[in-house]
Amino acid sequence: MKSLLKKLVLFSAGHTYSNLSRLFLRLFVGVMFLHICTQQLMHLSDGMHQGFDGFLGMSAGTSMTALLVMEVICAACIMFGFMTRYAVLPPLVMMCMAENIILQANTSQVVSVLNFQPGYPIMFIGIFLYILLAGPGKISLDYIIAVHLVDQNEENDIIERA
Q1: Residues 49-70: pLDDT tens digits?
Q2: 83's torsion region: left (phi>0), alpha (psi -120 to 50) or beta?
Q3: Rounded to whole angstroms, how far apart are CA atoms 82 and 143?
């Protein structure tokens, strides 16, 4: 009985599904981010951006549109695993700013402007930090590109030696 338990524990410890779980997490956060982005996009013409302050000298509508484009591009890159650690940084900063706004302002006004319920930014911050630290995993374009570059470098080394 003891050896059977030992085999089961050792088998399950050595065969984790970390790459599959990273894929699921990337897909989950990408779909959630796209969902929030589409909600914001639908309400953009309703004057939702009036309560939103512009940044970098842009008007409120222009800066909101820039944020929506950034959200879509970063969500797609995160879902496909393309430049994942770089694609996580802008949304991470945006979520930190959103949480700061939620903590400082009237919650009902912020929820109408950002379409965020209190607690959403913290959830996204945690997920983005995990993706930033753990990386995209083997089921990603980053991994495929890295393997291709390593294979190409090995072929160049073989050609140079000949």
Answers
A1: 555 666 666 777 777 788 888 9
A2: left
A3: 9
Which amino acid is located at 102 in the chain?
Answer: I
Q: Taking CA 64 as the corner, what is the angle to CA 59 and CA 65, rounded to the nearest 5 degrees?
A: 100
84 — pLDDT class (breaks 50, 70, 90): very high
Predicted TM-score (pTM) of this structure: 0.75
- In the DSSP assignment, the letter for residue 82 is S
Nearest residue to 50 via CA among 41, 59, 37: 59
Question: How many CA atoms does the CB half-sphere of 17 hold within 13 Å?
Answer: 5
| Phi and psi at residue 99, to the nearest 5° | -65, -40
Tokens 């995209």 correspond to what residue?
A: 136
* Most distant CA atoms of the chain, gap in Å: 70
| Predicted pLDDT at 155 | 62
